[in-house]
Amino acid sequence: MMNISRSLALISLFILPLLSFSFSVDNPTDRRVLVLLDDLSLKSSHSIFFNNLKSRGFDLDFKLAEDSKLALQRYGQYLYDGLIIFAPSTERLGGSLDSKSIADFVDSGRDLILSADTSASDLIRGIATECGVDFDEDSSAMVIDHSSFSVSDVDGDHTLVAADDLVKSDVILGKTKIEAPVLFRGVAHSLNPNNNLVLKVLSASPSAYSANPSSKLSSPPQLTGSAISLVSVMQARNNARVVISGSLQLFSDRLFRSGVQKAGSPNKYEKSGNQQFVTELSKWVFHERGHLKAGSLVHHRVGETDEPAIYRIKDDLEFSVEIFEWSGKSWEPYVADDVQVQFYMMSPYVLKTLSTDKKGLFHTSFKVPDVYGVFQFKVEYEKLGYTTLSLSKQIPVRPYRHNEYERFIPTAYPYYGACFTTMAGFFVFSFVYLYHK
Amino acid sequence: MVKSTSKDAQDLFHSLRSAYSATPTNLKIIDLYVVFAVFTALIQVVYMALVGSFPFNSFLSGVLSCVGTAVLAVCLRIQVNKENKEFKDLAPERAFADFVLCNLVLHLVIINFLG
């Protein structure tokens, strides 16, 4: 008796951690975040941003970027789910970190917030280039805008830009519209046109350009107008998310609290849009929003419930798939009217938009085309800001068996009659021909 | 002019009938059989023109059974005709046996193709 209860306790000791682990497997939000700073004073000057992350349940680990004990991995396991690099001037990262290990970190599906600033180091530029973002090569250049600068810009060189050209995406920037302009002081970047995963979240106005504010402009600036991106995001094919900002001040308490009035505009705001912008963007980048999960593809013939091993041409079938969206705390049903399924063999033979029951189930029904071969059900869902869904399931389609063709068709009765009449005629003819006198 | 034309046609028809009445009875029976087969085929073609060609295999087998029957009957007629010197060595019984065999094969194929 003693033995049994002891072994039970032992078993539960082993099983309990497994159970609790299995609950967090389905949880895509990052929990452990490493913050690399080039100066520990950033911890207090950017405290609103960091405290907001902490209050949302993130476990922030502040380290100096040159700390020689830095490590992202231990024994082949990543120690962190996310990485914030607020160290624009660092030339070399401490410990085992370099731009390759950060690229590997993103390749493993983990998230990154990278902020450059004026005089960004080659290391930071290199990491940004890996993500499809090219900072202005002139290291002393800043974004200057003589028409949409903030009136609180006391220096008079118009480098404190009030930007309001935001990407129109509820999933990246939240449902609440950001009313006040976002204050930005920093370096311009452009997007690599060959990279179609990266996009501008905050663009400069058409009158902006990138140059050194303290020297006279001798040649036309290389980056001008709305080609300049101030903040960009990249979602990799493995759904890792990266935010790249040209300004570290964008995240600072000072700009969070400062009021804003765009030059030439009568609207004066008590608070800049920075806090809302940065909070919503961090929710997106750490997978608190816009993360989709799909169940398996379910299909069966109309009127049946089991999945067949093979379909016949012209069968009627029903198809369904469940898609859920992570809300930061739980999986909510995903509602959209643009999810499509393909019935695919070399090219899509059937392309149907799925209808949803608003409880996460997307379904449709269609007829198998009059072509046999090995088909695939394919759901390829790529929507701005959402994680990419790419699902497929193979299914063969066979032609009719010889006994599945229709027989005794009423239209064909005259032909049947004619055949048997000629046979009867043959008998009658033979009889008459042989026995006539 | 008109009168003479119709009279010519009548004369032609009469001479044809009198010439045909001299044909032996067994050849007349074969002719009747051929007319029956061609007529059945025509009915089916008209029917197909009306309702469309959907069970096309059935239509083909129906029409081809009639056409095949007519062809085989004409072959028999050539072989049993006494005036045809080409087949004078062939016994009419042998010709009829060939005809029966060919018909059996034809109808076997037709039934298979009927659907």
Which keywords apply here?
heterodimer, A: 437 residues, alpha+beta, Rossmann fold, Immunoglobulin-like, 6-stranded antiparallel beta sheet, 31% strand, elongated, B: 115 residues, mainly alpha, flat, endoplasmic reticulum (chain B)
Structural domain count of chain B: 1
Which regions of chain B have little confidence, pLDDT < 50, spanning 5+ residues? none
- Sequence of strands across the biggest β-sheet of chain A: 2-1-5-6-16-15-13-10
Quaternary state reads: heterodimer
CA(first)-CA(last) distance of chain A: 113 Å
* Shape call of chain B: flat
* Strands of chain A, count: 29
What is the topological layout?
The complex is a heterodimer of chains A (437) and B (115).
Chain A: H1 2-25, E1 32-37, H2 42-45, H3 47-55, E2 59-64, E3 73-74, E4 77-78, E5 82-86, H4 99-107, E6 111-115, H5 122-130, E7 133-135, E8 142-145, E9 161-163, E10 165-166, H6 170-173, E11 182-184, E12 189-191, E13 198-203, E14 208-211, E15 229-235, E16 241-245, H7 253-257, E17 260-261, E18 268-269, H8 274-285, E19 291-294, E20 298-301, E21 311-312, E22 316-326, E23 331-333, E24 340-345, E25 347-353, E26 355-356, E27 361-367, E28 373-381, E29 389-398, H9 413-435
Parallel strand pairs in A: 1-2, 1-5, 5-6, 6-16, 21-29
Antiparallel strand pairs in A: 3-4, 7-12, 8-14, 9-11, 10-13, 13-15, 15-16, 17-18, 19-22, 20-22, 22-23, 22-27, 24-25, 24-28, 26-27, 28-29
Helix pairs in contact in A: 3-8, 4-5
Chain B: H1 2-21, H2 25-51, H3 56-80, H4 92-113
Helix pairs in contact in B: 2-3, 3-4
